[in-house]
Design goal:
Helices cover about 20% and strands about 20% of the residues. The protein is elongated, with a radius of gyration of 24 Å. A five-stranded mixed beta sheet has the order 2-1-5-3-4, covered by helices on one side. The N and C termini lie far apart (about 75 Å). The longest helix is centred in the first third of the chain and has 11 residues. The relative contact order is 0.19. It is of the alpha+beta class. It contains two helices and five strands, in the order αββαβββ. The chain folds into two domains: about 35 residues, no CATH class; about 70 residues, Roll (Ubiquitin-like (UB roll)).
Length: about 120
C-alpha cells in the first residue's frame, strides 16, 4: 500500500497537514511554509452614481474606502475631481466604505466637484 495521499475526487488532493509542511520546510532549509488562502472575492453591488451632468448605473465594490473609489466614479459621470460623496442624504467620509453606510443594490451615490453643492437628483 502506498503512503501517497489518495485522490478525493476529480484531481483534488487533501490539504497538507502541519506536520507535512514542517517536514518539507526542513528539507528545503526554510523556516516555515505558509499556505496562503486566495484573496477574498470582492463583494459588488449595482448602484446609480449621480453627478451634476447625469447618472450612470455601475457595479461597485462594497468594501473599498471611498477615497479609493471617488476618482473612478467621478470619471464615470464627468467629474475630474470629486470633492463630496453623498449617500442616503449623508456626506460620506473618505475612509468609509459603501457597506459601512448601508449601500445596497439600487442605492444612489451622489458626487460633487469643486464649487458645486451635492445634488440629490444628479442633475436630472
Amino acid at each position: 500500500m502506498s503512503d501517497l495521499p489518495r485522490n478525493h475526487g476529480a484531481g483534488a488532493l487533501p490539504e497538507p497537514s502541519e506536520k507535512l509542511l514542517a517536514k518539507v520546510a526542513a528539507v528545503l532549509g526554510v523556516g516555515d511554509l505558509f499556505v496562503h488562502p486566495p484573496p477574498p472575492t470582492p463583494r459588488l453591488v449595482i448602484v446609480t452614481v449621480a453627478g451634476p451632468t447625469g447618472r450612470k448605473v455601475l457595479q461597485v465594490p462594497l468594501d473599498v474606502p471611498m477615497r479609493q473609489l471617488a476618482a473612478g466614479l467621478g470619471a464615470e459621470v464627468g467629474i475630474p475631481l470629486v470633492t463630496a460623496v453623498t449617500v442616503h442624504g449623508e456626506r460620506l467620509a473618505p475612509g468609509r466604505t459603501l457597506d459601512e453606510v448601508g449601500v445596497r443594490a439600487g442605492s444612489v451615490i451622489t458626487l460633487s466637484g469643486p464649487g458645486a453643492p451635492p445634488t440629490q437628483n444628479g442633475g436630472n
